[in-house]
Write the structure tokens for this entry.
Amino acid sequence: MSKTNFNQGVFFNPETVTNVWETPQDLFDKLNEMFRFTTDVCALPDNAKCQQFYTPDQDGLQQKWTGTCWMNPPYGREIGKWVQKAYESAQQGATVVCLVPARTCSEWWHRYCMQGEIWFIRHRLKFGGSRINAPFPNAVVIFESRTKGHSYKAIDRHGNFISA
């Protein structure tokens, strides 16, 4: 596989040639102050953000998500399944906060993300220990059972709200 960051709609981290983008710690810390996450539903043991987390072997898509969940899914072709699971888990009472690429042209974005609260992130994120910024914009999408209507806000890459 060549070191590319775009391949038929799938974004790869060009430094590791993977679709795993580790959550920037300062962004997570700011969001965790607001939400107090209980479970990281999509993690690896070395990048889990919560004490309770699901690994690929545990398959978070097959688990019941409860409480306040953090989700930074693999940014590959199955991302739509993860966003659908987040939306459906919120309908069953969970709060799910998702860090996703702002792919406003995707079916999963319009079907699910548009039903939640969206915080567009100004500037590109620098994931994990990466030396370069991601080649795509991101958004935080919040699914809660009590969400009524749509809400759109902007935050900086550190999680601080910004105004227009």
Summary: The chain has three helices and ten strands. The longest strand covers residues 95-101. Residues 79-91 form the longest helix (13 residues). The two ends are 41 Å apart (CA to CA).
